[in-house]
Design goal:
- By secondary structure, the protein is an all-alpha fold.
- It has helices spanning 3-13, 28-53, 73-78, 80-89, 94-110.
């Protein structure tokens, strides 16, 4: 999955994409922050990824949203969107952010 895929899923979780799937222009600050926030999540989940892949621990940050996140597909699809949703809206809606944080931790624990 790419950073864009994870970001779009997180924005869907936050109900911030419009019907066409586009990101509204008033969310440009979220888009600008997304790469750095995904890199935080990559670092947080690198150990879990190394256990899944049975490989040495590596952290491979992305330089832009279009780049592929080199974590297992399971982590990218089931864990990272919740973590990113939490980080994106934590200043806007703390209740929703806490829900996403809880779900993020739950999905990590399931793996």
């Amino acid at each position: 999955m790419t950073g864009t895929d994870i970001y779009n899923t997180a924005m869907d979780l936050c109900a911030l994409r419009n019907k066409s799937g586009a990101i509204p222009s008033d969310c440009s600050d979220l888009t600008q922050r997304a790469t750095a926030l995904i890199n935080i999540l990559i670092a947080e989940n690198a150990y879990l990824d190394s256990l899944i892949k049975k490989q040495a621990l590596t952290i491979n940050p992305i330089t832009e949203l279009s780049k592929t996140v080199e974590l297992s597909e399971l982590i990218c699809a089931a864990v990272l969107p919740y973590g990113l949703a939490c980080l994106l809206i934590q200043n806007e809606d703390t209740g929703e952010a806490m829900f996403f944080k809880s779900r993020y931790e739950f999905e990590k624990a399931k793996i």
